[in-house]
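Running low. Invent one:
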Amino acid sequence: MRTSALLLLVMVAAFALAQERYPPPRFTDAERVTKLESALPALDQIFRDYASSHRIPGMVWGLVIDGRLAHVGSVGVQDLASSTPVTADTVFRIASMTKSFTALAVLKLRDEGKLSLEDRVAKWIPEFAQLELPTKDSAPLRIRQLLSHSAGFPEDNPWGDQQLAASDADLTRWLTRGIPFSSAPGTRYEYSNYAFGLLGRIVTKASGVAYDRYVRTQILAKLHMADSTLQFSDVPGARRAIGYRLKPDGTYQEEPPLPQGAFGSMGGLLTSANDLGRYVAYHLSAWPPRDDADSGPVRRSSVREMSHLWTPSNLTVRRTDGRLVASETGYGYGLRITTDCRFEHIVSHGGGLPGFGSYMSWLPDYGVGIFAMATLTYAGPSEPISTAWDALQKTGGLERRVLPPSPMLTAAREHILALWNHWDDAQARSLGAMNLLLDAPASQRRAEIDALKAEVGECGPAGPVLAENWLRGQFNLGCAKGTVGAFFTLAPTEPPAVQHLSFRKLDSPATRIGAPTGPPAGVSCSD
C-alpha cells in the first residue's frame, strides 16, 4: 500500500512538472561542471601570472559554480613581516564591493515596508530639505538615485577613499554646508561614494539600529559569513591581510588600516575567500526566476533587481590583439552591469582602497562566478577575471541555461504544424489573434506556404520548440531540400493566440529566426 501511494505521488509530481506553465531554464549538459573544472589549472596560472607581473604581495581567488565555492587558489603572503601564506580564511578589505551589501540592506528594508525607493532622501536625511538643487526644474532626490549613481553628485573616488573613518558629526556638518552637483539629478551616471555614505545613514534610520549592526545581523549572519565584518579590529591578527603600496624605488610600504566610520557603507567591509564565495553563490542563487521557496535574507526578485541596468554609463569599442571588443556598461543597485561580445549579462563590482584591490563577477544565466582579492593599492584584478572567462569558455562547459518550451508554445506548435500540412482558413482564424489575418490575409499566407513547400520538397516530422521566452519560439522542419523554420509569437490574451507567424527556409538548422542567443544585435567579436 505504501509503495503504491509513493508511486502515485511520483506520477502526480511528474504530471505537474510536465504541465508547468512557466518552466524555468535549465542546464542540459550533464558534463558541464566537469568541463568547467577542467580549466582550474589554467585559471590558477592566469591569477599567478597577474600577481607576479603586478608584484602583488598576496592574492586569493575563487570560482563559484551552482551555489558552491568550487575552487580557491592563492599566492604570496598576507603579511610581509611574518610571511604567513594567504589562504581561503585570510581576511581582506574589499572596499567598494561593500556597496552591494548596502544595496541589499536597503532592498530588505524596502521589502519589509520600512522605506520606499521612491522616498525623497529628505524624508530620512532632513538636511536635504534645504539642499539647493542645480536647476529650478530638478526633481527632489530619491533613494533609487543614490543606489544607481544617478543623483548628480560628482565622481569622488580620490576624495571618497579617505572618508571611510568620517564620523556621523562630520557627515552632518557636510550636509549642512550642502553638496555641489556635477550634473542635474536623474540625467546621467556618475560614481558617488558620497551617495552610498548617505544610504548607510538611511539604513540606520529606517531600521532603528546602526548600519554596521544591521548588515551584520540581517545580511552577513543570515548568509553564514562569520569571517566578515565592518570593524577592522574584529579580525584576528593571525588571519588579517595587510595592505601595501608599491613605492617608486620598488619597495613596499604598509598602508595603515582605515577605521570604520559613517562612510563604511561605501567601502568598509572585510571578508575572506570562503565568505565571499558564499556571497557570490547567494547572488547566483537568485537566478533563474522560479517557484520554489524563497529562503532570503532578501527576496530573490530584489536580488535580481540589483542586477538590472538602471543607469547606463558607457559604450566602448576597441581592438585587443587584433580582435574587436565591444561592451556596454551601466549600474544597477550597488553592482555594475555589462554586456559584451561574449555574454549578454555580466554582473560585477570592484573595490580599491589604500593597500587593497578586489573584484567579483558572475554570469547569472550560466551559474558561474569568479572573484579575487589582493593586498596592493588599487590592484583591482578585473583583467585576470576577464581572461578566466575566456579559459572557461574554451572548455565547452560555460553554457547558459536552456529554456524549455512552455505548454502554451507546445500546444501552438501542434496547431501551426497542422496548418503547414493542410491549410484551413477556419483553423487559422481559430488559432490566430485578431490581427494575424489582418496583417497578411489567409490567401497570402497559404500561397507563401505552398511556394515554400515547392522549394524544399517533402518534409519530415517537426522538431521541438526552441523557446526564446515563454510566449515566443521556433520549431524546424527537416525537408528534402533544406530546413524550414517556423517562428511564432503568442499574444497577451487568454488563452494566448498566435499574433505573429512566419515560415522561412534556413541557411542552417542552427539558424534562429528570433532574437539572437549570443552577443547583442549589431555587436561582433571577429578576428
Remarks:
- The chain has two domains: 25-401, 407-506.
- The chain is about 35% helix and 20% strand.
- Residues 97 and 326 are 24 Å apart (CA to CA).
- The chain has a mean pLDDT of 93.
